[in-house]
Amino acid sequence: MTTVYTAGVLLFWILISTGTAYALLAAWRISLGTGRDRAPTLVIAFVGMAAWAYSGLTQNLLLIIAAQLLRNIAWLVYLANATQPSADSSERRSHSATILGVMAVLAAASAVMGILQIPDTPAATTWAVVTIGCRLIFAIGGIIYLHNLYNGLTSSSGTGFRLILFALGMLSAYDLNLYTVGLLGYQVAEPLSIGRPVLALLLAPLFLVAARRREHWKIALSRKATFQSLSLVAIGLYFVSMSIVARSETVFAGSAGPTLAIGAVLGLSAIGAFLLFSTRARAWLKVVIIKNLFRHRYDYRAEWLRFSATISDSGGSALSLEERVVKAVADVTESPAGLLLMTTDQRTFDVAAAWCWGHRATPPTGPILFPEAQREQLQQGLIATFAQHAQHDSHTQEPPEIVETIGDAWVAVPLIWLSTMIGVVILAKPRLQRALDWEDFDLLKVIGQQAAVHLSDAHKQLELEEARRFEEFNRRFAYIIHDIKNVVSQLSLLASNAQQHGSNPKFQAEMSRSLTSAVQKMNVLLSRLSPDRVLQSATPESIDVDRLIDTVVTGRVDQRSLSIGPRSGARARGDLEKLKLALDHLVQNAIEASPVDQPVVVSATSVGPHCVITVADNGVGMSADFIRKGLFKPFVSTKGGGFGIGAAEAKALVAGMGGTLRVTSTEGHGSIFTIELPLSDVRD
């Protein structure tokens, strides 16, 4: 008896303290001024908290229920007033108002149920379970809404509103646990109800700090938050329903309880399975929710992020770009499949890609036609729809129209790039067909334009790669022409000398060696035309430089202007084929730049860790300006009929081996070309 009396006295003073604390908060907030910001609704909320606490001092159930309803509605009004002007779009304000309206209905319903509950009657338990269930759903909805609202605050928001949301979240969380225990029928539910005013008293300092601040905040409630809230509220309804079913035996006498339980479980299972496994049902439910809760059909930020992720293949789907384009467009209307048609003449189309079209009819392989009206509509960037199949005249020579060729066609989205239609995406009929509105058309149009940009960029990149391959081939061919010219010059000299020295056995032997060398050079030139040929890919090797110089010098018939200078006995590290070709170019250029009576000297020395090969002549020489600007540029030459390629290719070949090619020249006094390569390691 003493314990009960002590608990009653303690509860009395807790209620007095809580009510007084919130009454003082309301009065203090009024003294600060209530004409600005959200202060008036905050004062009303504090008054509701005070009335709710003081109502616990009475034994009047009607007064207690009314006070709790006042508290709940007052806080909902404050939240509505706080979120309406601060949300960054009318759509998000609509989301917030919808959720708050549903919660207000739940609060009113729980109050009505509590008032209708009559003790000591057969229906008392039923009303009690339903009342607790409504309060539980209200608590669940409050936690979810406050959580999403808290996360939706922008980084520039102050701490005042965050504190209020945190405090309200604590109250809702306590109510959730309290009503869950009560719904499950545990006896501790009544003692736990004493903790509600205790928690409210402990949270009063948070409200004090929050009420002192005059802050402005911005809220960004998303569609995702709304769907999450509705989903969790649905889970709460399911939980409440199952709790009521579990207690049906105590509510209904006789066989009515088990019968109700079996029927309810079967019904809930059927609804759950229908929503989980029926794509059409989920699509219908989504349409209903969007149509009734959202001002706009699409969350454009989410759609843009989804489109970007699909095009960039961030999920690693391994689809081709064309297939990803179709998928990105199809996801807008939840179309299950699609085709990409590409065109070159704006009239006929060919299938370029198919996405998820395997279970349908095989995509056509021939040219496809659109009806004239639809083709003009698509060329203007407008979305075309296919209501029914068109009849095709079998006697005409024109290809069949798309409505006959692709029977599952539903929507055609043009891909416009620089005012030109480069293709069309055909979407298959969705599981839940609906009439498209202006919002669908606008989004599909923008998505189609962006998809066209990606396709055009990809095709331009392919064309650029192809142009680069042709450029590489042309560059190689230009070098080949230059080398052929050198071989032709050698053979021409051989033919002219054969008339005078053809009967000379020594000349015949020299001619045979020169012809063999020319054939080898031609074979090397032909191999260099292969697209798989990459000179720079050869593995470096140890090169006998003196032997290479002998080969280059003795491989020419006319040696009157060629001589071998000092030898180094060194071995260079590089590619024998490239070095020989570079040396041939330099020797040929030196011969062509020198008079017949002036020698061209090829020599080799070792300087530190490098092997230095020089080709010196006493020819016409070059100016410093030409050496700097034109010597190593293809197709720039000072010689009449020259290609200007030999020096450029020689420099590229030497650089490919990790060496350098330098030149010193004076006009009228000749030139010296120097090849510098690293010495080969002794282990080579």
Written account of the structure:
By secondary structure, the protein is an alpha+beta fold. It has helices at 2-31, 39-55, 61-83, 90-116, 124-152, 159-183, 189-192, 195-212, 223-246, 248-251, 256-277, 279-293, 300-312, 321-333, 372-379, 402-405, 438-501, 505-528, 545-554, 576-593, 624-629, 646-656, and strands at 338-342, 348-355, 368-369, 384-385, 409-417, 420-428, 541-544, 562-564, 571-574, 600-607, 610-617, 660-666, 670-678. The strands form three sheets. The chain has a six-stranded antiparallel sheet. Strands 8-10-11-13-12 form a five-stranded mixed sheet. It is elongated. Mean pLDDT is 75; it is low at 388-400.
Distance between the termini: 106 Å
**Fraction of residues in H or I helices:** 55-70%
Trace the largest sheet across and list its strands: 3-2-1-6-5-4
For the largest beta-sheet, the strand count, sense and barrel status come to:
6 strands, antiparallel
Rounded mean pLDDT score: 75
Based on CA atoms alone, the radius of gyration comes out at 45 Å
Strand content: 5-15%
- Count of helical stretches: 22
Specify the oligomeric state. Answer: single chain
- Which of globular, elongated, flat, extended, rod-shaped describes the shape? elongated
Structural class: alpha+beta
